[in-house]
Amino acid sequence: DTVYVLNGPNLNLLGLREPEIYGSDTLDDIAAMLEDRARELGLAIDMRQTNHEGMLVDWLHEAQAEGARAVLLNPAAYTHTSIALLDAVRAIRTPVIEVHLSDPATREPFRHQSYVGMAAARTVKGLGARSYLVALDAVAEL
Ligand code: DQA
């Protein structure tokens, strides 16, 4: 069973980008951690990143078409703006877990709204890179 791990804008700069907020692990580091944990759980990981909103929509559709077990989705700033992503999460039957490194609820007011969160099966946030691992563990419980 494959779990899609979809990452939105600016997360390609993880490790360099505001490390006091997001930590020093890169997306490749997180992919390596997830692969180890996935192996233990008998799952496979398909980790991707894009800076383009519509690409995330296409990948969500693909996750369903390919029969993915679940999607871990860090929509980054599109979390707070994208009705297209909310609709895409609602449009597929594949369960989507929303993931954030930081806890947007404790940051600027414009980060308090999550459109994706309105449709996500679960949200894991505020644990740094570990948010992804906790979210992967949650896939087993879905
Ligand atoms: C983020 C939180 C978002 O508010 C922000 O725009 C990001 C990253 C996180 O993982 O903490 O780019 O999704």
From TrEMBL:
The record marks R17 as: Transition state stabilizer. GO terms for molecular function: 3-dehydroquinate dehydratase activity. Keywords: Amino-acid biosynthesis, Aromatic amino acid biosynthesis, Lyase. Pathway: Metabolic intermediate biosynthesis; chorismate biosynthesis; chorismate from D-erythrose 4-phosphate and phosphoenolpyruvate: step 3/7. Substrate binds at N74, H80, D87, L101, S102, R111. The keyword Lyase applies. Its EC number is 4.2.1.10. It catalyses: 3-dehydroquinate = 3-dehydroshikimate + H2O. It is an enzyme of class 4 (lyase). Coiled coil: none annotated. The active site is at Y22 (proton acceptor), H100 (proton donor). HAMAP family: AroQ (MF_00169). Homododecamer. Catalyzes a trans-dehydration via an enolate intermediate. Belongs to the type-II 3-dehydroquinase family. NCBIfam families: PRK05395.1-2 (NF003805), PRK05395.1-3 (NF003806), PRK05395.1-4 (NF003807). This is 3-dehydroquinate dehydratase. It comes from Pelagerythrobacter marinus.
